[in-house]
Amino acid sequence: MEKNFPYDRQQTHSLQAPPCYDNTQVYPNFNQPQPILQQPQIMQAPPNVLGGVPSMATCPSCGVWRQTKVEFEPSTKTHLLALLICMLGGIGCCCIPYCTESCQSAKHTCSSCGAYVGTYKN
After folding, report:
1. Assigned domain for 88 exists
2. Which CB contacts under 8 angstroms, 24+ apart, belong to 18-24?
3. CB 78 within 8 A of CB 103
């Protein structure tokens, strides 16, 4: 009775022996000091904390850390307060929100180059 082999007997003669394992192979020398690569340091500026008064901030345009100039501009809150005062009968008093800084937005600009830094909304 013949046994079934997954390959023919003719192929057994054509198979090669595995390669010789001798110690003549060259391996890298792990005792040598490896070069140390440093990651670049990224310097982040502190976040600009703006308020209703001039404050220290980094200009996004020129990169200078200086005190900002502040200009007050009417906002939606200013207009709504004026409308509310007018509807409640204070027609002569409806301009008060336009005269007080606490009812307006503070627009901060760079004192060096005049670039826009940010807005503080009350």
Report:
1. yes
2. none
3. yes
How many C-beta atoms surround the C-beta of residue 9 within 10 A?
Answer: 7
- Looking at the 3D structure of the chain, how many domains does it have? 1
Helical (H) or strand (E) element with 71? strand 69-74
Q: Distance between CA atoms of 70 and 23, rounded to whole angstroms?
A: 78
Per DSSP, 22 falls in state -
Nearest to 121 by CA among 51, 70, 22: 51
What confidence tens digit (pLDDT) does each residue in 72-119 have? 999 999 999 999 999 988 788 888 899 999 999 999 999 999 999 999
Q: Each residue of 57-83: pLDDT tens digit?
A: 999 888 889 999 999 999 999 999 999
Report d(CA 105, CA 119) in Å as an integer: 7
In a domain, 106, yes or no: yes
Please tell me whether residue 42 adopts helix, strand or coil conformation: coil
Q: Which residue has the tokens 């040598």?
A: 32
Range of the domain at 106: 70-122
d(CA 14, CA 9): 10
